[in-house]
Amino acid sequence: GSQSLASRNVLKVDQQSKTITWGVKADTRLFGLLDTKDGKIKGFEVDLARALTKQMLGSKGKAKFIQVTSSTRMPMLKNGNIDAIIATMTNTPERRKQVSFSKTYFYAGQSLLVKKGSSIKNVKDLNQQKGTVLGVVGSDSVQNVAKVAPNAKVLQLTDYAQAMTALKSVQGQALTTDNGILYGMSVQNPDYVVTGGTFVAEPYGIAVDKAQTPFLKKLNQALTELRANGQYRKILHKWFHNVKGFDYEEAAKE
Amino acid sequence: MSMIEFHNVEKYYGDFHALHNINLTIEAGETVVLIGPSGSGKSTLIRSINGLEQIREGQLIVNGQDLADPKTDINRIRKNVGMVFQHFNLYANKSVLENIMLAPRIVLHRKEDENKKIAMEMLDRVGLADQATKMPAQLSGGQKQRIAIARSLAMRPKCLLFDEPTSALDPEMVDDVLNIMKTIARDSSMTSLVVTHEMGFAREVANRVIFMADGRIVEDDSKDKFFNGEPTNERARQFLSKILH
Amino acid sequence: MSMIEFHNVEKYYGDFHALHNINLTIEAGETVVLIGPSGSGKSTLIRSINGLEQIREGQLIVNGQDLADPKTDINRIRKNVGMVFQHFNLYANKSVLENIMLAPRIVLHRKEDENKKIAMEMLDRVGLADQATKMPAQLSGGQKQRIAIARSLAMRPKCLLFDEPTSALDPEMVDDVLNIMKTIARDSSMTSLVVTHEMGFAREVANRVIFMADGRIVEDDSKDKFFNGEPTNERARQFLSKILH
Amino acid sequence: MIHIFQDYGGTLLYGLGQTLLCSIIALICSLIIGTFFALLEESPNKFARGIARIYIEIFRNIPLLVITMFFYVVIPLYVMKMNGFTAGTIGLTLYTSAFIAETVRSGIRSVDPGQMEGARSNGLTFWQAMRYIVLPQAFRYVIPPLGNQFVNLVKNSSTLAFVGGFDLMYQGNAIASSSLETMAAYSAVGVLYLIVTMPISYYMRYLEKRLA
Amino acid sequence: MLNNFIAAYSPDNLRYLFGGLGITLLVSVASIIGSFIIGAILGIVRYVKFKYFSAVVGFIIDVIRNLPLILILFFIYFGLPNIGVKPEVIPAAIFAMTIFESAMLAEIVRSGIQAVDPGQMEGARANGLTYWQGLWHIVLPQALVKMIPAIVSQFISLVKDTSLATIILLPEMLYRSQIIYGQNTNYIIPMFVAIAVLYFIVCYALSVLAHYLEKRQA
Ligand SMILES: Nc1ncnc2c1ncn2[C@@H]1O[C@H](COP(=O)(O)OP(=O)(O)OP(=O)(O)O)[C@@H](O)[C@H]1O
Ligand SMILES: Nc1ncnc2c1ncn2[C@@H]1O[C@H](COP(=O)(O)OP(=O)(O)OP(=O)(O)O)[C@@H](O)[C@H]1O
Ligand SMILES: NC(=O)CC[C@H](N)C(=O)O
Ligand SMILES: [Mg+2]
Ligand SMILES: [Mg+2]
């Protein structure tokens, strides 16, 4: 099992096959979202992964994308279904026990999405009103809420499409996750707004199996190069330049 | 008043013409035996008398009420017409006593103590008073059939229909059932119509013997004519010779 | 050599002792009728002869082979011992002809044209040559039983077992089946053992009549002794009087 | 797997409790609804039979998850508030009731028609015969398949996980992704399901044999 | 309201949804074929009773039958890689469904064989056929006819159960409907109507087939 994965050099295998298999989100607007028109996944992370692939394997390098959700991404990485996770995944100490993270490629912060005019303006309101907050199984956001707003009830859904639908059908008063993701939702659903600022820092890293140090090194190097040659900025701009209230510089922090 | 009157009755199962132009009158107190080859319509005829089968055309008057008339309450007719089946059809989920007492209780609203008294009388009459608390599954076939008869009698019907009551019994059980049927048949206040191949029974207690073939009544004789005078119908003669082997 | 020999045979169903110390010898060519009340063990006895039931103790020698011996190939015995059941047990998924031809083809590897010839002969013998292509469900009970007999005969057995072959039949079908059984019984090269309550049949063709009760053979008489001399056993006498009503 | 029980025992037990609670509620409700539609289907009234047929066909031929999602997503949007547990239990009830209707109906059918005829000619009405004679016997036949329906209910209640029903599967998902020990977490969940379902289905097989 | 329907059923969305139907059908048909073959073999093994083998097979079947399909999907999708196999979503879904449904079918096959009148086997044995000849020529053909309705309704369940594979992100019909209405709340009802109707058509067609076969057999 994981032994066979550990004994394998993913970088070598990928260099031979000229393919990197990335686990990406398919339900998260701006980061990774499935386009029903052509069945392709599109978003900031997808573009970044593509750029990283070329940077790491040369111009013939191909990026292969497999959908993950917050709850499937870890087992799939550990099982070797995917080589790396680039799926709005926060670098946390807890997770570092299991996987290695690249340098930060997107600096997010946890926030709330509520219906316009909601009595909940921030986490404190949520705590005081003992509201129900919606999240997604396997995100650290739900664990954060338990710490920050212990009075709030947490309801975990399987993915963000579900969570958003649940918010609309008033299964909860607020949806919590990272601001970037929430902005994506409010773009699509103008009746819902991101509110209360960020209350936990959520630096995204690309997760790689612990044994794959050569791959990780190469990945970090490629990331630095993309930042240096301006491609990173271009991709970030492409996806976020017309998102209202989004703080560019914050996100690009390392 | 006649007990049962068929006037030009026609019965179909879907497209299949099961009874052809049946005309038959049975007077109160008569004992009529109905015979005929398998599939000739004996069961169909007898079952239509208490409305288990619906006729398509003609008139069928039982105890003064026309069964073809939609206003006739079939449940009222059934109170007066009991039926005993080949396979007994005892209520498998009720004890012997409950089998007998159920219909009088919920249909006739007979009072509980009277109901029980009558039920025990009937059990006594069929010689099974000691089996009252058993379940049907614990009885032999002959006992089941006697209970079924007691169940019918407890409703105090004016007329009893029997559809091959002994043909599912082990040979050594047949006599007990026939004996009870004979005492019923001799009771002049009871009309009985019996489908059976037990010619000894027919000889002993029937007033009339009716022979059916292909959904028609082809012979309707007094007992003596049937057994002594040889039936006029050729098929009836053949059949008779076969079952009297 | 005797066809069938029981020596001190004991048979149990779980804890239930179904056959008690059975000793019985049937010679080749005999026709033996087995009677007795329901549950007395007639079917058990007859089914153990071709290994459908296994005996616990004693010796059971059929056609020279000991059934209790584990080395005995039961399939070889069954080639020589045919059986006809109360409920016919025709293969529901095969036509009449296929019912007859299947076992000779796959057990005896009889050649196809010969197989068909023999099958048609047998059908002819039971008077149903015109029914060859029908499915069993399209036949009457009497026809089914005659086909079942033809199926057994087509294996050219030395011995035929019949377990109440007429008791599931409509009365007017009984004769046809009995007549075929009579011709078989009269064929001196065939041994037959017949469970039946048709005393007319027993009288006409049996060599011996055996009476069972409670898992024991309580009477084993020549036909004449049984019917004329009155059986010595009290239960056998009683039973006989009931079924001869 | 043992340490999953040690670390998350309380959570798992709570989930098991929710699973059993919703299964039992759904069993009782679907038994009532299912029997009702089975009787409609066996009734002499053509219109009633049609209604029953439509109800049964609809709920038999649409996935449970779709029915459940409908109650979770659509009903709160347009009709009334409803949490995942409620939506899931309603979905399970409606879905299962269609199968129970079929089961009870075949139970009624497997009662010898002679029982109905005997009762009718003994003077009982159709509904009296149904109530006193046929149904009590049908239920005896139907107990093993109903037990199996209950096993199905317990298994199917895992759809509550999709709608945040806090059932065993929901807790399993949560534990799997917070402990990051996917296989161990799901194995623990599997063991708990089996503890409930295996004894029932073995007992039902025993009953089936005994009844046959 | 009507506008919502028109917008929801845009050509793109419909194409996407029907693609999901295609995957639903692909997974269904592949699992139906697989589970029919495996289930039949297992059912016979269970009926015939080869000493320990049948008992072990029986126990495994019982374990699988008594677990929720969702768990089996997880075990296959997340568990198989532990032994070195890395299935894609569609093969993983087919594999999991096949395992689960084979266990269900084995049970149907076993009880179908048991429902054949024992007199048929007795007739065959008494007629000189061996046990296996009796099973093959007489009992199995009749059992198959008897169990067709149960098998078809199991296949109906199978088609419906493919929807559970959304949990491992199988892009089938239900999953795709969620993606579509995840983008626009107004599409919720149109999407539910669409998938309910599509599932209903597929499953009802199967159940009509079952009724037809049942009638033809009677
Ligand atoms: N429910 C039914 N549907 C269609 N046909 C039927 C039905 N009941 C009886 N029949 C047919 O009607 C004819 C008469 O049947 P019926 O049972 O009255 O005959 P029977 O004289 O009682 O025969 P048996 O001696 O075998 O009881 C038969 O051809 C039978 O196949
Ligand atoms: N498979 C079985 N398991 C247990 N008991 C059995 C089995 N078969 C028969 N018996 C019992 O063995 C006894 C003899 O049965 P058997 O069938 O041989 O009687 P029979 O004389 O053929 O009766 P009938 O005239 O009713 O056919 C009965 O008490 C019966 O209940
Ligand atoms: N998609 C997510 O799960 C976002 C939540 C958070 N960034 C996490 O890693 O858990
Ligand atoms: Mg009849
Ligand atoms: Mg017997």
Automatic annotation (TrEMBL), chains B, C:
Presence of keyword rRNA-binding: no
Top-level taxon: Bacteria
Keyword Transport assigned: yes
CDD domains per the UniProt record, alphabetical: ABC_HisP_GlnQ (cd03262)
MF-aspect GO terms: ABC-type amino acid transporter activity; ATP binding; ATP hydrolysis activity
Alphabetized InterPro entries for the sequence: AAA+_ATPase, ABC_ATPase_HisP-typ, ABC_transporter-like_ATP-bd, ABC_transporter-like_CS, MetN_ABC_transporter-like, P-loop_NTPase
Domain ABC transporter: 4-239
Keywords, comma-separated and alphabetical: ATP-binding, Nucleotide-binding, Transport
Similarity field: Belongs to the ABC transporter superfamily.
Name used for this protein in its record: Amino acid ABC transporter ATP-binding protein
Organism: Levilactobacillus suantsaii
From TrEMBL, chain D:
Coiled coil: none
Alphabetized UniProt keyword annotations: Amino-acid transport, Cell membrane, Membrane, Transmembrane, Transmembrane helix, Transport
A single GO cellular-component term on record: ATP-binding cassette (ABC) transporter complex
Keyword Transferase among record annotations: no
Gene3D superfamilies assigned: MetI-like
Organism domain of life: Bacteria
Principal location: membrane
One GO BP: amino acid transport
GO molecular function terms noted in the UniProt entry: transmembrane transporter activity
Transmembrane segments: 12-40, 61-79, 183-204
Pfam families, per database record: BPD_transp_1
Bilayer topology annotation: Multi-pass membrane protein
Subcellular location per the Swiss-Prot or TrEMBL entry: Cell membrane
PANTHER family: GLUTAMINE ABC TRANSPORTER PERMEASE PROTEIN GLNM-RELATED, MEMBRANE COMPONENT OF AMINO ACID ABC TRANSPORTER
NCBIfam families (UniProt xref): HEQRo_perm_3TM
Family, per entry: Belongs to the binding-protein-dependent transport system permease family.
Listed name of the protein: Amino acid ABC transporter permease
Lineage of the organism: Bacteria, Bacillati, Bacillota, Bacilli, Lactobacillales
From TrEMBL, chain E:
Membrane topology of the entry: Multi-pass membrane protein
Predominant location: membrane
PROSITE patterns: ABC_TM1 (PS50928)
Keyword DNA repair: no
Domain of life: Bacteria
Alphabetical list of InterPro entries matching this protein: AA_ABC_transptr_permease_3TM, ArtM/GltK/GlnP/TcyL/YhdX-like, MetI-like, MetI-like_sf
GO cellular component: ATP-binding cassette (ABC) transporter complex
Keyword Cell membrane: yes
GO biological process: amino acid transport
Coiled-coil ranges (or none): none
Family, similarity comment: Belongs to the binding-protein-dependent transport system permease family.
Name listed for the protein in its UniProt record: Amino acid ABC transporter permease
Lineage of origin: Bacteria, Bacillati, Bacillota, Bacilli, Lactobacillales
